[in-house]
Amino acid sequence: METIKLIDDKQTDSDAGKRVHLLQLKYDEMEKWVQSIGQPKFRGKQIFTWLYQDRVNNIADMTNLPQKFREQLAEIATIDTMREVTRQVSTDGTIKWLWELYDGSTIETVLMRHDYGNSVCVSTQVGCRMGCTFCASTLGGLVRNLTGGEVVEQLLNVQRFLDQEAKGERVSSVVLMGSGEPMENYDESMRFIDIANDQNGLKIGARHITISTSGLVPAIKRLADEKRQITLAISLHATRDEIRSALMPINRRWGIAELLDACRYYIAETGRRVSFEYALVGGKNDDLAHARELADLLANIDCHVNLIPVNYVPERNYTRTPKDQIRAFVNELNRLGVNATVRREKGHDIAAACGQLRAEQGKI
Ligand code: SAH
Question: Is the pTM of this model over 0.85?
Fold first, then answer.
């Protein structure tokens, strides 16, 4: 494990909040916006290409734009609103960034290197207010929503890193699984997805984008109605309401039955299978009786279950399920016809694994 402290005299652009963040605009909005400031529509495409294909850091480098227009743009708009504070590299190749935003808030982003490609985990909120008892992201509560542009910027920064350090390897998939509840910041999360997915943007295929939720039922239905082809992941973690409510306060609002109904609706409307995350928490939800209950609950749902041995969070003292018991749990699910695998943990040594992200310098 290695931590790189960036000795960087670049200051966060504290003015950024007042300027137009170019990464906030969808393609058609960019075309309209350039027209609103007296430019022909095609400048929108030119800017988009500079941002997402050439991935320039500076408006001055957009050399096919007239000099005068570049000067005007530099005054009223900005591309980069966040500063890299630290970059930590795990022994397994996972990299975690801590960014300082223009208002001084901080967030984390993770790059995971798999044999099948590069996957990026983005944050959607500074902090989180869901209150899940096993997760570090919620310890300080919610500070604020991120804008779609701030989520795009996380992704673009990681792609720029790969351009420089990994011979232009591409980000192949994105998960909205960093800090925050993306469904609570619905519009900005969708804005991010639209920009990441745009053919003139970073071209991340919808099926390679996963949005994870603790279970906001109305938002799941709304997403189903939009018929997007993205992957929906549900943080389920328990088979009985009393256990789930103790782990995840949101369950008191929408219980397991209602949540699973929303998932069935999502599958019916989109034709997509759903993923369920199930963190195995020692002694709470991890014996074979729970595996059987889980199989019963999911019997008629087209889904995949990701089992995650609960990750260490220093403020909590949950214990991990022993390896043999994890095996037995997954075998029991498979035996009962449930498609389930144990998620390979990444970045544990740099506190970059599920539930370990937070809005401050990482504690391990
Ligand atoms: N708020 C959304 C997005 C966060 S995704 C959601 O809850 O789905 C982060 C995933 O990591 C969620 O599935 C979350 O339940 C899980 N997680 C949180 N803390 C964890 C921990 N300590 N160990 C393992 N998984 C954890």
Answer: yes
